[in-house]
Amino acid sequence: MTDPARTGPPATDLELASDLVVHAARLVRAVRRTLDLPAGVRLLSILDEHGPLGVSRLAVLDRCSQPTMSAAVAAAADRGWVDKQPNPDDARSSVVTLTRAGRAELARIRRTNGETVAARLAALPQHSRQDVATAVAVLRDLLDISLEPHDLSEGAAR
Amino acid sequence: MTDPARTGPPATDLELASDLVVHAARLVRAVRRTLDLPAGVRLLSILDEHGPLGVSRLAVLDRCSQPTMSAAVAAAADRGWVDKQPNPDDARSSVVTLTRAGRAELARIRRTNGETVAARLAALPQHSRQDVATAVAVLRDLLDISLEPHDLSEGAAR
DNA sequence: CGACATTACATAGGCAACCTATGCATCGCC
DNA sequence: GGCGATGCATAGGTTGCCTATGTAATGTCG
């Protein structure tokens, strides 16, 4: 298994953190190849989590640029997954809402992808369901703190 | 924080597995934006782990197509990170080897990326080092079993 | 109330990473 | 020697994402 020529087994915090990213990248591509992972899924996922939002705020939450999110919203709107209306309180901004069809599409993708991944996880006796939850939590929290600390956190609540 | 309109909090195995992929995708893009994550890193990482290999085998290990790996190898060879020689035992195939410079480059990227990610992880008191190790293991093992079951698993070592 | 910075979004243009399809040379085998 | 299988390269096209920039609406301030 181990090759004597390798630099060293992943042991340090640095290698661990680096490996986290590398393996995440591999997983994403592997999923994109075999399953169905359009970029718009993340948009639907955010709207499902946070409710209606404007484009810029969506971009921040997805850690992408505003033009990228504009395109994603336009594409999703074309397919009827989201509804984009001008904000009545601010003519500059929009309000993007998850439609019923979008919710169904999100559920469909979650189901298909989830089934595959869950099946593979089930074949790994060394990893409990709790381990997967831990992995998800690590990834999520890792991103949360990489945002601007004060402004974007759901301005609706206040 | 929670919005009453949302479909539901991630609870089922399916949603958990799906969220794993979505969050992984977000992390990868977030890292690509701020840090340095050229595609070739994965190639170097594989060579570091497994030692010299041919292009097709590398592609399988990285879960990418063979042409993609051919391009990655060519790019890495241009920069002196790998050495590509014809296989003396089989004129069809090549043997790609990690050079000293490639090893150094891999160490550099692991250091810079690792420092950033590790620093952010350190700012998350709710996640232990063990949690990160768990996350890495889940991602890695998840990919291991998605391969052909018998042939490619470093047939050399055993 | 008019000038000016700020904010929210759209558009233009381009690049990087991948993929499928296909061609070519070699190897294994009968 | 013919023939399928294997290893790799090339061609062509798609997706995803970025920076730079323009435009319109909003807040601010003299």
Automatic annotation (TrEMBL), chains A, B:
Domain HTH marR-type per the UniProt entry, residue ranges: 13-144
UniProt signal peptide: none
Pfam families the UniProt entry points to: MarR
Highest taxon in the source lineage: Bacteria
Coiled-coil ranges from the UniProt annotation: none
InterPro entries (alphabetical): HTH-type_Bedaq_tolerance (IPR052526), HTH_MarR-typ (IPR000835), WH-like_DNA-bd_sf (IPR036388), WH_DNA-bd_sf (IPR036390)
Name assigned to this protein: MarR family transcriptional regulator
Source organism per UniProt: Nocardioides oceani
